[in-house]
Amino acid sequence: MRLQRCRSALSIVLLQHVIDCFFLLTSHRVSSSDVPLLIGPSQTVVAFVGDDVTLPCRLEPATDASAMRLEWARPDLSPGFVHVWADRREHVLDKQPSYRGRTSLLTDRLHLGDISLKLVNVTLSDEGPYRCLVPELGRKAFVKLAVCVVSTPVIRVMSRTSSSVVLQCESAGWYPEPELLWLDGEGKLLSAGPPETVRGPDDLYTVSSRVTVEKRHSNTFTCRVQQNNINQTREAHIRVAVLSRYVKGVLALGLLGVVLGLASTIHGCMREHVRHKKIQSEHSNKEKMDV
Fold it and tell me: Based on C-alpha coordinates, what's the Rg of the chain?
C-alpha cells in the first residue's frame, strides 16, 4: 500500500515537472516571438569599384536601435569587425584596417531600426559576405556584396579581302571574368574562335576575340561583352561598307574617264613635243643652208 502511494506521488511529481517544462517552453517561445526580426536583402548587393554602397539591414517591426550595440563583420576576415556601434558611437578597436575611415551607419535612422552600413570608395577586396548582428536581441542577418568593374569594348579592322573582313574586339578592365560574343545585324551569334582572356596584376580581366565575316549588304556587327552574375553588358558596333553594283559601275566609269583623260593629256604632250622638235630641226637645217 505504501509502495503504491509512493508510486502515485512520484507520478504526480513527474507530471507536474512535465507541465512546468511545457509552460516554460511555451513562455520562451512567446517571448522570442516578441523580439524584432533582423531583415537583410534577399539578393546580392552589387557595387562598382570606386563607388559608395549601402548594405541594407533593419529591425522589423521598427525598433529604436540607437542605444543598442550593433556589429557589422566579415566572417571570412580576421579581425573581422567592419563597424561596431556601442554607447551611441563607433568603436574602432579590432576593426579590420582596410575599412578604417570608410564605414558609417545612418545615425539619423537608427531610431527607426535601420542599421544599414554605408561603405565608401569600394575596392575589389570588399567583395564577400557581411554579417549584421544585434547581440542584445540575439538577431543576425547576412548580406553578400559583389564588386564589379566593366569597360566598353573596342572593335578594329585587322585585314580585308575582296569578299571578307577580319575584325578584332577587345575590352580591358573587367571583374569578375566576362564572356565575349559576336553577333550579326540580325542578332544571331557568329562563329568565332574561343576568346583570349588575360588577368592582370590588378586582378582585372582583359578579353579579346577575332572573327572573319563576309562582305554583304547590311554588314553591321556587334561585339558584346557580358557578366551575367552581376547583370552587366557592354557593346560595340561596326558597319563594314559594301559597295553596290551601281556605285561600283559609277566608280569604274569614273576611273576609266580619269585613265582616258590622262592618256589624252599624255598623247597631246607627246604630239606637242614632236612638233616642237620638228620645228627646231627645220630651223637648224635652214641656218646651215644659209651659211
Answer: 41
Domain count, the chain: 2
As given in the structure block, the three cell numbers for residue 89 are 558611437
How do the residues of the chain divide into helix, strand and coil, expressed in percent and rounded to 5?
A: 30, 35, 30
**Cell reading at 138:** 540575439
Can you tell me the distance from the alpha carbon of 70 to that of 83, in angstroms, rounded to the nearest whole number? 8
Give the 3-state secondary structure of residue 96: coil
Boundaries of domain holding 95: 37-148
Q: How many CB atoms within 10 Å of residue 254? A: 10
Q: Model-level pTM?
A: 0.67
Which CA distances in Å does 274 have to 156, 259, 271, 281? 53, 22, 5, 11
**Contact at 8 Å (CB) between 96 and 79?**
yes
Amino acid sitting at position 3? L
Residues 6 or more apart whose CB falls under 8 angstroms from that of 100 comprise: 92
pLDDT in tens, 93-103: 999 999 999 99
Judgement on whether residues 129 and 165 belong to the same structural domain of the protein? no
